Amino acid sequence: MTKQSYPRLVLTALAAAILLGGCSLAPTYQTPPAPLPVQWTAPIADAATPTPTSAATLDWQQFVADETLRNLIAQALANNRDLRQTLLNVDASRAQFRIQRADRLPGIDAQLGGTRQRSPANMNASGQPQLQSTWQAGAGLAAFELDLFGRVRSLSDAAMEDFLATEGTANAARITLVAEVIQTYLTRDGALQRRQLTEQTLRSREASLQLIGARRERGVGSALDYQEALGLAEQARAQLERIEREIRQSGNALILLIGAGSAVISLPATPASAPLLVQEIGAGVPSELLAQRPDIRAAEHRLRARDADIGAARAAFFPRISLTGMFGSSSPELSGLFESGQRAWSFAPQLTLPIFNGGRNTANLELSRVRKEIAVTAYEQSIETAFREVNDALAATDTLRREELAQRGLAQSGRAAERLSEVRYKGGIDSHLRYLDAQRNAFASQIALTDVATQRQIALATLFRSLGGGWGTAAPGAENRGSTAQAK
User: Fold this and answer.
1) Which of 59, 63, 120, 300 is disulfide-compatible with 470, CB 3.0–4.6 A?
2) What local confidence, expressed as pLDDT, does residue 477 receive?
């Protein structure tokens, strides 16, 4: 073989690897049938409900109407520790994919090495011990596998799909974080509303207590009336402390979610005067969940990865050809290594054919098939879970809307009854006990109205998260193209 033959031989082998590398033994991917009904079981809207905003075109910046809450969510997305760990897992998965993909290309290294050895006298024709030196320098090709049956390609595809699944999991974590910040903020805002209401009630009860005390001093009021009024005032003070505890704890929860640590964040001291969220969301049809929910897309990527694992396991039954070679110069002396006439090369193709390995390859193939079935089950379960979450959220928003209307009417009735009872008590028509009952009922109905209104807002946030939380607005395939391009 001439000295020009080696580069030509290597190039021919590499070209053959590229041409034959298109063969793959992975099964053709088919999306499993989605266990989804045609329509939601909960009613979405009635004639009195305003036209909802479609969740498919609504991101969290549009869903959140309050500027302060939007800023807090942005801080949480930038600083939350749990989310940061999830994003680092995405970076690690991307790096793993790039490592695996590198096996599809030949690795060429610069090599410089030498050996020096002594041979005893009885092993030489001259009868004298000899010292031999060999020095080599050049470019080497280290065990590059010709991917004739797509084993390396399948492993690379599996790593890519695992990376995309990790990225989908990160998007789901973002949605969950956004929803948790919204729900915690709503809980705190509801507590602020109850504190405001309780403070007003306490002032009213303290004024009543002073009035009854003055009447008692004049001999008009009884000690029992005074003690009952005092009990109502103390009840409001105790309620106020419970609400204050809830406000502080929800503020601490917000600090943890935002990742502010010891930094001071600015939280409003009074409840919001306008709705914090978009009040009506269109759920669309159940089939849209497959594109909108990142956790479902992540489960599908894992399913694709398991298909690629099957391809790699099947390829392990076939021969494996690897190429090792070196092209450079060789000399018995280091000083003459780069002189003319010292050109050297080596080419060592190797064919490996599995004959007996104790059933390892068969077991690996069986394992990959079982893992695919597990991935199919996980994919179907993720769809069923998403459907249940959306149905629950729709049921909550639908019933809480009507419950809030009924509770609002009850609160208005309670306030009217309290005013009438006060007038009748001061006029001597009703007893003080009846007036106290009217006060208790009015306060309880107003607190219940605040709780129901807060629960409805939290249910809206849950529905938004269950429908995909704005991460399903990209065109189909955009996630794959963008992520793959970024990985490259």
Assistant:
1) 59
2) 41
